[in-house]
Amino acid sequence: MKKITDYENKKVLVLGLAKSGVSAAKLLHELGALVTVNDFKQFDQNPEAQDLLTLGIRVVTGGHPIELLDEDFSLIVKNPGIPYTNPLVEKAVSMNLPILTEVELAYQIAECPIIGITGTNGKTTTTTMIGLLLNADREKGTARLAGNIGYPASEVAEESSAEDDIVMELSSFQLMGIKTFRPHIAVITNIYEAHLDYHGSREEYVKAKWAVQENMEANDFIVLNWNQQELRELSETTKATIIPFSTKEKVAGAYLADEKLYYKDEYIMKSAELGVPGSHNIENALAAISVAKLKGVSTEVIKQTLMIFTGVPHRTQYVGEVGGRKFYNDSKATNILATEMALSGFDHSSLVLLAGGLDRGNSFEELVPSLKGIKAIILFGETKDKLYTAAVEAGIKMIQRTENVQTAVRQAYDFSEKNDTILLSPACASWDQYPNFELRGDAFIQAMHQLKDIEK
Fold first, then answer.
1. Which of 24, 64, 297, 384 is the most exposed place for a label (fewest CB within 10 A)?
2. What mean pLDDT comes out for the span 123-134?
3. Is the whole-model pTM more than 0.90?
4. CA atoms 422, 428, 432, 437: torsion sign
């Protein structure tokens, strides 16, 4: 990593722990900063804070006392999950105290190029695809995944060498806390309406996403979804070189034509050869192909890698076959749009959908067109009655309400027959029954494996 001196003897407040906060605190301590860590969780239930204390880092736990700001800090490094409406954060803003996120620190110490991927949907899949493509036939260095995908960016940057690439998934929350951050290649998969409870308005959400290119220059590249008029218009305001991708028209980048994928008129592969289903995954693949081509990856390597890529866990992930039925885990589909995208990739006449979860007040009317033609639907969780109404409106003949994902899998199996597909794509968050979407997806997979035991 770069040995920077920017933080020597400066008082820095790290606000919120989790993985990124722990990494930021350790890095700043190593860089000579006078670090104070503040986390809401009580000290006796906070192993991360206990660990940092043994390193000589000051910790304040059990709340976010505003009086901390009387201590003349030079800046705050904020956990992305803490909103700007937090009283301590609001006070810091009023004091014009710089508030960064950990990805800014990662950029400052990184010796290698950063590829930054953001967007509303498809970030993790596209990030994973890019990592695989850049590592597939690599002779020197490694493409290292980082950021919102689960690996603290500053920790990855600290471990990386000049021969590596950092492939960094970036949330809008993280991008609100950048100052000099400049990826060599940026990707925006798409922009839809999301996280308005955090950002306050769509305008602020889009502004946060678009910040990924704020410091880019003409010798940098930004890969944009040309299907979206909003991104076309925003493209006129960047200094970066634009690489468009589209599933609707031929563009001067990556595109779909006659069910084939191209990059600047070079044929790459058939869309049907992708290892993951769905029109949204064609978009993700086109974005990944654009980055791979910019980095000099050969067409053959791109094709072979994308053919065997079967998805990211919990994101339209193929998880196995039982009794001639194929099972797909899309537990990450925590909103209607994500489920609509997943449904676009399957033959509805042989599809059994499992859906339901936390009730956030949605009526699910907008999901009705995507439900039409589905063979059967099994509903669970707080929203099962609302989804039942939508399923009736869509004309689905076979509708069943059940208790949870586990019972839904067994009923889906009983409703289905050989050559059918069973898809978990809930269109809802998991928190009514499961702590997170990962555990909900794991429950789906476990229930599938239990079916295997029954079949024996």
1. 64
2. 96
3. no
4. positive
Check residue 455 and give its pLDDT: 61
For residues 371-384, give the mean pLDDT. 97
- 252 pLDDT exceeds 90? yes
State whether 355 and 426 are in the same domain. yes
Q: Which two tokens stand for residue 27?
A: 């890095």
Specify the CATH number for the domain of residue 55. 3.40.50.720
CATH number of the domain within which 204 lies: 3.40.1190.10
Crossing angle of helices 102-109 and 18-30, in 10° steps, is: 40
Q: Which residues are part of a known binding site?
A: 119-125
Do 268 and 325 lie in one domain? The reply is no
Which range, of 185-199, 251-265, 324-338, averages the lowest pLDDT?
185-199
Structure tokens, 156: 């990855």
Torsion of the alpha carbons at 341, 344, 346 and 350, rounded to the nearest 10: 110
- Degrees (nearest 5) of the Cα angle 67, 70, 76? 90
What are the two backbone dihedrals, phi and then psi, of residue 148, each rounded to the nearest 5 degrees? -65, -10
- Binding-site annotation, residues for ATP: 119-125
3-state DSSP percent of the chain in helix, strand and coil, to 5 = 40, 20, 40
CB atoms within 10 A of CB 350: 17
Question: Which range marks the domain in which residue 140 is found?
Answer: 103-308
